[in-house]
Amino acid sequence: MTSPTESIAAPLRVVVVGMGRHGQHRTEQLRLLSDWRVAGLCDLDAAALERCATLGEPRHWASVLRDQHVDVVWLATPFETRVELATAALEAGKHVVVEPPLASTMAEFDKVLRVAESRGRSITVAHSRRFDPDFQTPLRLVREGELGSLELLTLTLWQQHPAPLQGTTLWNFAPDFCDQLLLLADSKPIGVTAYPLKHPGPGADYGLLAIIQFDSGAMARLELHRSALPPVDSGWMLTGTRGGYARGTQYFITAQQEIEDVPLPAETGGKDSFYTVLASHLRHGTPSPVTTKEATQVAELLASLSESS
Fold it and tell me: For the chain, which ranges sit under pLDDT 50?
C-alpha cells in the first residue's frame, strides 16, 4: 500500500504479533524465505508463545516498538486490536503488514492510512490468497478475455471446524474471498445483500451467504460455512459471454456450436510470490502486492456487507 521512503537491506527483520493459527502459519512461511528474518514473536498469552518457542524469540510489545533494528511488524492479532497496534507500530517507524481485515469501519481504515502516509511507512493488508495458483488460473482467463463479459461468479466453501467458533464469518473468514471477487469482477459493487447463518440464541454465526451486483451487470454469490460436516470447496466458478470456468477446466462453444471443456495446467508461483513481491516493495519501493486502492475497495465491500447483514 503506502510506499516506503527508503531502501532496506535484506533480509527484512520482522516481528510477528499474535501467535494464533494465522500468526504461526506466517512465521513458519517467513522462516523459509531468504528475504525475511524472524526477529521475534509477540503475544499477551504466555502459553501461545511457549507453543511457538521453536519459531522465534519471545518479545515484549514495548521493546519491539523501541527496537530500531526491527523493520516490519506483522499483525496477526484479533482484528479488533489491529487499528491500535498498527497505529502504534507506524508511529514507531515500523512498516506494518496486517492480516485482513485491518478495520471494521472505513473511518478507522482511513485513519491508519493517514498515519502511514504521515510517517512515510508502508501499511500492507496481507491478501496473500490472491497469489494462490488455483485462483491465478481463473484470474488469468478473465484478464485475457477468454470468458468474455462475466455474467455470474460463485464460490461455495464449507469448511470442517470442530472447535468452538469465534467472531463472525464476515470479518474472520470472508475478507480474502472478497479480495479475489473484486479482482475477478474488476467492476464496482452497486448492490449487496448479506445473510449471516446463525442458530437461534447466543453464539457466533457459522456461515455467510452474500449476493453482490456489479455495475458491469455481473452478479456474484458467495456461500461460506465455517463448521460444516461435509467439506465442500467449489473454487471460483465463472460464466461469461464467451465461456466459463470451474474446477480447473475452461469451457467454451466451438464453431460447431458444441460445448468443449479443456483441463488447464496448474499455474506456477503461489503464495511465496506474495512474500517476494512484498519484500521488494519494502526494500526498494516497487509496487505493493496489494495496493492502497485495492485494499480500500475490499474494506468498502466488507463495510457494505456488514451494513446489509
Answer: none
